[in-house]
Amino acid sequence: MEIILTQDVNNLGHKDEIVKVKNGYGRNYLIPQGMGQLATESNRKVLAETLRQRAHKEEKIRSEATAMAEKLAGAKIEVGAKVGESGKIFGSVNALQIAEALKKLGMEIDRKQITIDSESIKQLGTYSAGVKLYKDIKATVEFEVVAE
Question: Which residues of the chain have a pLDDT value below 70?
Fold first, then answer.
């Protein structure tokens, strides 16, 4: 069964892609959840017209994401955390704190776009995080955890 995705689905595809899925997955999950629609001939024509109109807008978004990736690569971020006497952090550093630090530098990034490479950050030091800016445009951000 071929489905036209109406939104991004993890491990399957991005919005407006035609993907091949098993019948049960398409009929029982994707279509009822509003994540996709059947890839009939009329839906394919509507999709083709939509993609043709959206191509210009997508190029603009892609160039902005590339510019943001270059800006992020050169950024130096410091995340403050409360530290005990042994140098261990109370709690851990998460994506929300990194997003707030980026916001202070004038870069508006949603916390859901940030993935921290380490499982949990509980020590002072320098770490890296991945930022997904667009479908295939990703940037790596280096940040330093410092004592407050």
Answer: none
CATH no. of 2-61? 3.40.5.10
pLDDT of residue 20: 96
pLDDT at 84: 85
Residues 147, 108: Cα–Cα separation, whole Å: 24
Q: Residue 142 carries which side chain, given as an amino acid letter?
A: E
Q: How far apart are CA 81 and CA 69, in angstroms?
A: 26
* Exposed/middle/buried for residue 55 (C-beta within 10 Å: 0-12, 13-18, 19+): exposed
pLDDT at 66: 92
Cβ pair 50, 43 in contact under 8 A:
no
The pLDDT, as a whole number, for residue 85 is: 83
User: Is the CATH code 3.30.565.10 the one for domain 69-147?
Assistant: no
Q: Is the pTM of this model over 0.70?
A: no
132 CB contacts (<8 Å, ≥6 apart)? Answer: 113, 115, 138
**Long-range CB contact pairs, 104-108, < 8 A, 24+:** 105/75, 105/77, 107/68, 107/71, 107/72, 107/75
